[in-house]
Amino acid sequence: MKIVYMPDVGFKINDQYEERTIKWNDQRKHIRKTVLKEYAYKKDDFKYDALDISGKRDIYSTDEVFFVLNYDVSSNALKEIEIHHGIDIEVNGVIIKFGDKMATVAEQLGIKPTVLDNGGTYLFPTLKMTISNSREMGDDNNSESDATDESQDICEETDGADTAYFYASSNIDHLLEDIDTKEDKDH
Q: Are strands 19-23 and 42-43 parallel, antiparallel or unpaired?
């Protein structure tokens, strides 16, 4: 399976069935019943009153692929995609494969990322997407050393990190706020 990610639009899915487009703000029911009708999903809605956290998501998982579509809690409109494995992602003509070096992906995209999570995540604000390494995704056996300054340039300590996760959203303000908050604390 391959996904062609189109910032500010959504993404195209190319698989054995056909090419089809899913747009940001498409309705959950429409995506389930028409666009991804061949794929089984697990509804994973949650609400934690004590933490004031809630979410709506559908998990698509087989032996070959694992991805998640996240929806707005009140409108059921698509707002995010998370890809965990089994899908090649095309962004601006660049094919991102799981296992590709994160620094190489950034170089191929021609965009200097904002480095987050001690080098474990690269944010590409203009593309409204991130890629993360396996350590950031919970792999404790990853032997990469951690960088010590989140705002540093891509460096030797993170150049070797393999892409293990892809995230894209119609709106990344929450990620940009996290950066602004950290910068405020550092000053």
A: unpaired
Residues 47-64, buried b or exposed e (16+ Cβ, 10 A)?
eeeeeeeeebbbebbeee
| Inter-residue contact 2 to 15 (CB < 8 Å) | yes
Looking at beta carbons, which pairs linking 12-21 to residues 24 or more positions away fall under 8 Å?
none
78 - beta bridge partners?
Answer: 71
Tens digits of residue pLDDT in 128-174: 999 999 888 877 654 444 443 443 444 444 555 899 999 999 999 98
How far the first Cα of the chain sits from its last, in Å, is: 45
Q: In this structure, are residues 137 and 123 in contact, taking their beta carbons and an 8 Å threshold?
A: no
